[in-house]
Design a protein that fits this description.
With about 160 residues, the protein is mostly helical. The protein has 3 helices and 3 strands; from the N terminus they run αβββαα.
C-alpha cells in the first residue's frame, strides 16, 4: 500500500510540474518585459533629474560666480536609501536620491529635495569643509534662501 501511495503522489507531482514550468517561463518573460519598461522609465527620470540639476546649478552660479568653474554634481537614483530622500557626498561631487520617493512625491523631490542636496554641494564648493560636520549651517541656509526655499533639514514625504 505504501508503494502505491508514493507512486500516486509522484504521478500527481509530475502532472503538476509541467504546467508549473510553463507558468514560470511566462512569468520570466513578462518580468523581462516589465524590467525593460522600468529601465526605460528610470532613464527618462534620470534625464529629467540631470536637466533640473543643471538649471539649479546655473541659478546658483548667477548668485555665486565662483561656481561657474565647477561641474554640477552627478545625480544617482538610488534604491538603497530608506528614510532619507537624498544624500550628498561632497568630496565625490555626487548626490544619491531615493528612487522610491519619486513614485508618490516626484514634484516634491524636484521642488525641495534636489535643490536641498545641490545646496549642500554648493556650500562645500564655496566655503569648504567648515560646514561639513553639521551640514545645515548658516552658509547653507543662505544658499537655500537664495534658491527661494525654506532651510528645512527634514522632509515630510510618505511612501
Amino acid at each position: 500500500m505504501r508503494r502505491q501511495f508514493y507512486h500516486i503522489k509522484l504521478g500527481r507531482v509530475k502532472d503538476f510540474l509541467i504546467p508549473l514550468q510553463k507558468i514560470c517561463y511566462k512569468i520570466f518573460v513578462d518580468n523581462k518585459k516589465f524590467r525593460r519598461i522600468i529601465y526605460s522609465m528610470n532613464r527618462q527620470r534620470q534625464f529629467y533629474v540631470d536637466s533640473q540639476t543643471n538649471k539649479i546649478w546655473e541659478t546658483l552660479s548667477e548668485s555665486y560666480p565662483r561656481l561657474i568653474r565647477f561641474n554640477p554634481p552627478k545625480i544617482k537614483l538610488c534604491n538603497r536609501l530608506y528614510r532619507t530622500a537624498g544624500k550628498c557626498y561632497q568630496e565625490e561631487n555626487l548626490i544619491h536620491l531615493a528612487n522610491k520617493f519619486f513614485v508618490n512625491n516626484s514634484a516634491e523631490m524636484f521642488r525641495t529635495i534636489l535643490p536641498h542636496e545641490i545646496a549642500h554641494q554648493a556650500d562645500f564648493v564655496l566655503f569648504g569643509e567648515s560646514e561639513k560636520k553639521c551640514g545645515h549651517g548658516l552658509q547653507w541656509q543662505k544658499i537655500m534662501v537664495q534658491l527661494g526655499l525654506p532651510a528645512n533639514k527634514y522632509h515630510s514625504m510618505t511612501l
